[in-house]
Specification:
The protein is α/β, with parallel strands linked by helices and 355 residues long. 20% of the residues lie in helices and 32% in strands. It has helices spanning 33-43, 57-64, 85-91, 93-96, 115-124, 177-184, 195-204, 224-235, and strands at 2-7, 27-28, 31-32, 48-53, 73-78, 101-105, 108-110, 128-134, 142-146, 152-157, 166-174, 209-213, 218-220, 241-242, 245-246, 251-253, 256-258, 263-265, 268-270, 273-275, 280-282, 285-286, 290-292, 297-304, 307-308, 313-321, 324-325, 330-331. Helix 2 links the parallel strand 4 (48-53) and strand 5 (73-78). This is Glucose-1-phosphate thymidylyltransferase.
Length: 355
């Protein structure tokens, strides 16, 4: 069995972060989201991985390499532009051959991994198996319709009027029969080859398409709110570890990780929180559900329920919360006179100001 991991896509909902970084590499608890998926694949006993890459291919290659650090053998498959999940299957045909495979969206996060799902698929071997979860607003997802017996009878992609609240999770398992289905469908109104259409083709052909309801935690980390929520969930499971330097004037409370090379000076850290290597926290407060990456500087500030990427500095700005701060960012106080706000903001930024 092989895996097909999708790591292309523009990540428009995470702009401006994704103007300069792949969305799959935005860190959760200081580890890229993509890495959690690769680890889950390896834990399920799958070693051969085809990785679909797009405009951020160089960055993905640099981060993942040949896959050996995950116990995987990774082959990169270029996709000219994101033309749908079924298109990814289409262009991976030569790599996948006649093997069964799991398709995993690289920006999805599933607590507990996929080992049980893969074992179930290997044992029963339906033509396709999908994961479903209940969501508050299914209009943003592929949506499944089930009959009274729980059998999948219909699938729609981002419907205006969903027939259920059951959304497709970004993990799919297929036999080679899916290759016939992706060749049989036409592009949708979005100009993409939709995997929901390919699955519907299988259903209409009376193929064995089964579903599993996800009982654990799942998130599509496509926007800032979901990124922060996943970060919170992962941090809830960290164990206290102090490998860096914490001076006598500082206090660390609860499940706090201070990586080797980090320094905490005259500060208070309340877990769960992670402070990356080479980072200095001075005269500051870092509160729960916060991850600060490597080589950052937090000085005379308060930070809570936030993600700070590497090589950034926050100095003397009071309290920051519910924020995603990119790489090489500088956050400093504005001049008190004249009273004005001064910004350098990327495309699609959102700013809230208290006058």
């Amino acid at each position: 069995m092989k895996a097909l991991v999708l790591s292309g896509g523009a990540g428009t909902r995470l702009r401006p972060i994704t103007h300069t970084s792949a969305k799959q590499l935005v860190p959760v608890a200081n580890k890229p989201v993509l890495f959690y998926g690769l680890e889950s694949i390896a834990e399920a006993g799958i070693t051969d991985v085809g990785m679909i890459v797009g405009d951020t291919a160089d960055e993905i290659r640099e981060a993942v390499g040949d896959g050996s650090k995950f116990g995987l053998d990774v082959t990169y498959i270029p996709q000219e532009r994101p033309l749908g999940l079924a298109h990814a299957v289409l262009i991976a045909r030569d790599y996948l051959g006649d093997d069964d495979f799991v398709m995993y969206l690289g920006d999805n996060f599933i607590v507990g991994g996929i080992t049980g799902l893969v074992d179930e698929f290997r044992h029963n071997r339906p033509d396709a198996q999908i994961l479903l979860t209940r969501v508050a607003d299914p209009r943003a997802f592929g949506v499944a319709e089930l009959d009274a017996s729980g059998q999948v009878i219909g699938l729609e992609e981002k419907p205006d009027r969903p027939k259920s609240d059951l959304a497709l999770v970004g993990v799919y398992l297929f036999t080679p029969l899916i290759h016939e289905a992706v060749r049989a469908i036409e592009p949708s109104w979005r100009g993409e080859l939709e995997i929901t259409h390919a699955l519907q083709h299988l259903i209409d052909s009376r193929a064995d398409v089964r579903c599993t309801l996800v009982k654990g935690y799942w998130k599509d980390t496509g926007n800032v709110g979901d990124m922060l929520e996943v970060n919170r969930t992962v941090l809830e499971g960290v164990e206290r570890r102090i490998d860096g330097d914490v001076d006598d004037a500082s206090e660390t409370i609860g499940r706090v990780v201070v990586e080797e090379g980090a320094r905490i000076v005259g500060s208070r850290i309340v877990g769960p929180a992670v402070i990356g290597s080479g980072t200095l926290v001075s005269d500051s407060y870092v509160g729960p559900f916060t991850s600060v990456a490597e080589n950052c500087r937090i000085t005379d500030s308060e930070l809570e329920f936030s993600i700070v990427l590497r090589d950034s500095s926050i100095q003397g700005v009071g309290r920051i919360e519910s924020s995603l701060i990119g790489r090489h960012v500088e956050v400093t106080p504005a001049p008190s006179v004249p009273s004005a706000h001064r910004f350098v903001l990327g495309d699609h930024s959102k700013v809230q100001i208290t006058s």
